[in-house]
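[Q] Does anyone have a clean structure-token version of this?
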Amino acid sequence: MYFVGREKEAIQIQRALERGENLVLMGKYGMGRTSLIRHVARIARDRWRFIFADFSQTPGEICRHLAQELLPEGKFKGKGSSYKSIRFRISTMDFTDQRNPVLVLDNIGKLSRPKMDLMRYFCLGRRYRFVAIVENFLPKGDLFLLRSWLNPVKSISVSYLNLSKARDFFRHYAEEYYIPWTESDIHNLAKMSGGYPLGIKEIVERNLKRWAEGGIEPSYR
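[A] Here you go.
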């Protein structure tokens, strides 16, 4: 999908990493937090290597995924390797890639004791920059702990897109797919979306499908 409306946040993220800071990215579900980090990963790929992990998984699953991503192909044998040995390898490995590694920990909704231990272990190693994408229901106490471990840290909150950015989004797809939406159609679609990124995506996908099936008028349902 086309990326629009987060230019300010993308710059903030890059500058924070350049200063040696970690990131805590906050916002409601559907605001495009992960999409924003993937966008930064693309535009800054010459300097930073972003490795994404789903923090809703168990510590063992997180470490196995990171090992598969970080270790050279064929060097990681998941079976027979203990969680602690995998964790140690991730925290002490030498990097052949000259880019600075950034661990993106997505879907942080709760810090169980094992996950707290994993975060402390990674942070004490100081081998990585971190981007923590936290859910809005993460308890305040957990957020405080997370920020303390990631210090120095910058917090960024993403919210709804403004009307202008939402119109840009719909206008892009109208031009790319030659959909004969008028500026009035685009304006109405943008207003209907409320600037909610996930809602915008769903509206675009629904209308692209309708257009492919022979429809012309925009759907507002």
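[Q] Thanks! Anything notable?
[A] The chain has a mean pLDDT of 90.
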